[in-house]
Amino acid sequence: MGTGIGKMKQYKQSEYMPENAKRCNVLMHYYGKQKPSAPDGSDDGLKEVYECWDFPKSTTTTIHVLPTWRDSAPFWEENWDSQSFDKTYPAQLGNAGISEETYRQILDPLNRILCSFYPFQQKDEMTKTGPEDTFYILELRKRLKQASVDYPETRWSIHVHKFASDLAGSLFTETVLHSLQIKLLNQVSIRQTKDVVTQDSNSVSTPTSDGLKLEDVSSSKDEVIPIGKEDGTAQAPSPKPNYGDDGLSM
């Protein structure tokens, strides 16, 4: 587990979710040596050789909760905090029945998980099936799935963002950041109802009884969304980590 974490921030074994609990969707993004840009979309002042990338942007139907941004950080860390989701309450959640206090209750255990398992690379946490099944990721996915169940007008999922920084020669460190995606299903329904009214009937996807298109209805099974992007500008240039200049995947 990560070191230097206060006891109050530790994710305790008594908090572990049931082993057979359902899991939310997860998107894995690999950026090679590209670093994330600042919240305003600019380079953070380092004038990186590699083009920076942006986190997904929130829309009227989807909220993206990003890592906490720090104006200053230790030189060996990024300004984006790997150990904390931004605690700012998204006011749009009020329409889905989630108050500021409820949002904090959902977010606090997630932040404790990040604090406890940072930097997310302990050998006993690795799995043969893939990073989406790493223990801490499973705990995040289970809790986010439960949030979707508790508040059915929302659908929660997680994005995992990985990139590398050079140390010397062929040595590098991998940084792992996380962001949350909250789809507001009531807003999706409203938007699609308007689409049905304004589009020709021959070109409209078949809506279900609750007004959602078939492709927007969540599966009852655990699901891993293919690597890529959804509702944002975060690019995944490579389906596997590419930390070399020769284009070879590692």
Q: Main β-sheet: number of strands, strand sense, barrel status? A: 4 strands, mixed
The DSSP helix count reads: 3
How many beta strands in the DSSP annotation? 6
Strands in their spatial order, largest beta sheet: 1-5-6-2
Average the pLDDT over all residues and give the rounded result.
Answer: 74
Percent of residues in beta strands? 15-25%
Give the structural class. alpha+beta
Give the count of structural domains.
1
SSE pattern:
EEEEHHEEH
Rg for CA atoms: 19 Å
Helix content: 10-25%
How would you describe what is shown here?
The chain has 250 residues and is α+β, with helices and mostly antiparallel strands. The chain has one domain (7-216). 19% of the residues lie in helices and 19% in strands. The chain has 3 helices and 6 strands, in the order ββββααββα. It has helices at 100-117, 135-150, 185-198; strands spanning 26-30, 62-65, 67-69, 80-85, 154-168, 171-184. A 4-stranded mixed beta sheet has the order 1-5-6-2. It has a two-stranded antiparallel ribbon with strand order 3-4. The longest helix is centred in the middle third of the chain and has 18 residues, at 100-117.
Brief overview, please?
This protein has 250 residues and is of the alpha+beta class.
What labels would you give this structure?
alpha+beta, 19% strand, 19% helix, four-stranded mixed beta sheet, 250 residues, 3 helices, disordered C terminus, two-stranded antiparallel ribbon
